[in-house]
Amino acid sequence: MENLHLGKPIPRYIIENENLIFTGYWEVPVMSDSEPLFFTRVKLEDDGQYSNAGGGASKLAEIIHNYEHKDLLIGILGVRPNTISGWNYLIIRKDNKDIFVKSYDDATGKVSKTEYSLNEIINLLKK
């Protein structure tokens, strides 16, 4: 227990009216000896305080930890179920552009290699 610590918080976003909107939630990895155990979700409340909003996504924490571009990660986009395979897209800032990659590729069990722009994600959501 003495080696447990919190990792870098990752802001969570949604798409609303074709805009990327911060939800007020962060995914915070709980780490042990620099390895992720799981994410816990933290919410910024109206009074400026933070509260625990649940969590436990151990697979996503592991996937992100092993992702080759994890140092470029600036957020997580949550999408509606049944519209795009998977719920989460990682948002990375690469060459001064925000790029979206599916957090889980069913074929490989890792972060997808396919990169999308925000407009491409919006167009996929419209289908």
Topology of helices and strands:
Layout: E1 4-6, E2 10-16, E3 19-32, E4 35-44, E5 50-55, H1 58-65, E6 73-78, E7 88-94, E8 97-102, E9 115-116, H2 118-126
Parallel strand pairs: 2-6
Antiparallel strand pairs: 1-3, 2-3, 3-4, 4-5, 6-7, 7-8, 8-9
What is the number of helical segments per DSSP (H or I, 4+ residues)?
2
Please compute the radius of gyration using only Cα atoms: 15 Å
The profile of the biggest β sheet is: 9 strands, mixed
Structure class: mainly beta
Count of domains: 1
> How many β strands by DSSP?
9
The amount of helix comes to: 10-25%
**Average pLDDT across residues?**
84
Beta-strand percent range = over 45%
Strand/helix succession: EEEEEHEEEEH
Low-confidence stretches: none
Shape annotation: globular
Distance between the termini: 47 Å
Describe the structure.
With 127 residues, the chain is mainly beta. It has one domain (4-126). The chain is 13% helix and 48% strand. It contains 2 helices and 9 strands; from the N terminus they run βββββαββββα. It has helices at residues 58-65, 118-126, and strands at residues 4-6, 10-16, 19-32, 35-44, 50-55, 73-78, 88-94, 97-102, 115-116. Strands 1, 2, 3, 4, 5, 6, 7, 8 and 9 form a 9-stranded mixed β-sheet that branches. A hairpin with a 5-residue loop joins strand 4 and strand 5. The longest helix has 9 residues, at 118-126. The chain is globular. The chain starts with a strand and ends with a helix. The model has no long low-confidence stretch (mean pLDDT 84).
